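ok so for the tutorial part 2 we go from a plain amino acid sequence to predicted C-alpha cells. step 1 is just haveing the sequence, like this:
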Amino acid sequence: MKNALLDEPRLAAIEARAAAAADGPWRAMLEGRDHSSGSSCIATATGGMELDASDADIEFMAAARDDVPYLLSELRRLAGLVEGR
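step 2 — the prediction. this is what the C-alpha cells look like for a chain of 85 residues:
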C-alpha cells in the first residue's frame, strides 16, 4: 500500500458502519473473566448486557477485523509521507 491513494469508497463504508453502530465505549464481557452467565457478549454505552446485537453492530464488529489493519496501514503510510520516508 506504499504511497497508494486513499480508498475513498472503503473509507466511506467504514464511516457508515461506525455511524450506524451503537455509541461507545464498548466493553467485551467474557464468560469466565467478567461474569459467569454462560455467554460472552459486548456491552455498549447505550444499553446493558443484551446478548442480541443489532444488525449494524454485528456488521461493524465483523468488518473491524479488516478495517483496523487497513486504517493502521494508511496511518503509517501518511506518517511516512509527513516524515519524508
